[in-house]
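Hi D.,

Good news: the full-assembly prediction came through. Inputs first.
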Amino acid sequence: MPKALDQENLGQSEEESVADFSGFNDSFGTRVAHFLHNNPATVPLIVLIASMVIFGILNGSRFFSPFALTLILQQVSIIGIIAAAQSLVILTAGIDLSVGAIMVLSSVIMGKFTFDLGLPPEISALCGLLCGTLIGTVNGMLVAFVKLPPFIVTLGMWQIALAANFLYSGSEVIRSQDIAQQAAFLQFFGGTIRIGGAAITYGVIFMLGLVAVLSYVLSQTAWGRHVYAIGDDPEAAELSGVNVKFTRVSVYALAGLICAFAGWVLIGRLGSVSPQAGQLSNIESITAVVIGGISLFGGRGSLAGSLFGALIVGVFTLGLRLLGADVQWTYLLIGILIISAVTVDQYIRKSV
Amino acid sequence: MSQTVLSARGLTKRYGRVTAMDNCDFDLRPGEILAVIGDNGAGKSTLIKALSGAIRPDQGEIRLEGKVVSFGSPIHAREHGIETVYQTLAMSPALSIADNMFMGRELRKPGLMGQVFRQLDKKRMRQIAREKLSALGLMTIQNINQTVETLSGGQRQGVAVARAAAFGSNVVILDEPTAALGVKESRRVLELIQNVRSRGIPIVLISHNMPHVFEIADRIHVHRLGCRLCVVNPKDVSMSDAVALMTGAMKPADVPIAS
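Then the structure:
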């Protein structure tokens, strides 16, 4: 009789465990992985704070001054914006190698349309933004409809946009003084708000605002959920009723538009329009995204992470420069960070 | 002729020289579980794809509640209340249960936040997801925000079936729902399927698993060489007869045919 009871109890508990969805009896490691999985920006945030503490201790007040901290923000503003565009594309399991080229071409169009065609700078800026959006849309169409790999499409577009940039500009710089005198509007994002020693440019505010808006869109709108679903499993998304083609095109188009804005911010940062600027932006943006914990396989990560990734690079760069270290140390440490970040990503994927 | 929810007459589909579906008929009655069985290559998937809108037949017509319909895509079929649970489940592993249930038909908040800022009504979606899962007896789910990849195979299948049952007002099509599952998980899913039927939704069940088919099906549609060979009642024929019909070892004349 007791035996029978036992069996019955056993049967019941097994029945429950089959129906049980909670699964909270996990090991500590699994729980950490769960947490990181649900909060993918945590690791880069910890790395960011740790690196700030370490460089703060090593450099003292030189580092923890309002001036130095806001300088980091200014220095990462371009890459932060480009990394936001790159994040969107990488979340769909794509990649965009043409981000830097779109940025530079757009800034050249803003400058040349103003100074060569004599358009009002407002119209030129608009043309630059349109150009970026258009290139992004072409990227997206080739990926979504012609079904070419994003790597190849944007590798080609990178060359095309860069060459167009050099051909159109004749590799000539439009000088800062000329822009300041005749088309100050183009330098709008270079405008600065000073509070004590802190200097916040409009470009920095734009970067922070962009990350905030895109974070909202990704987490709170259907379009944002679809971006993640496509990165996760495009066929499943399609069968669930997601318009995969439209979403893909819109992601690349939006990335193009954001890169064009980065071109405008670039004019504010440099003062001049320089066709040679931003040559490494594509690699730097991918670096920020990867350090920021967004998976290159798509569907995982957050925009805040990319911002932290960009800031980590900024903190390392300035911190090591203040220490008087060779700039190669920066690259070496960033290299280690990239590999570590991907290792963590793999760990999270496997253990969940 | 008895009343049908979903029926097809003379469906034909050719891929080059191969005729995957040859003048095929199909009938699903209200509130029943109709199993579709057939050997590999008999054309079951082609029939199901035609019914769920994944392919367009070359000839023939499909009627939903007596009206001729023509589906251009699975989404189109879904709009007509035909939900399909694919063998691959079509879920995004990194997204939550609630996200997955509402993928492609998200609810937005009412008023300004929803219309202008396009904000999703996550609270309401979670609540409905929870209701739907508990209505099907899956309510030991404590956390509807859990990602689907943290669920077991049976639980995933459960969520996929719940999703289909929640939105499939007319028909739910299940493609091999127990194929990848263990014994206990299969049992849960079979119970789930019966739960869905008890709520009045007819089900098309494609399965290779004869014991499962004979356990829950009301009628069995035997598919052979691209068309419906016959429909039998699992109470009148044995499993081995059904297999014999599928493989051509027996003729429909040798067994009692369902009404």
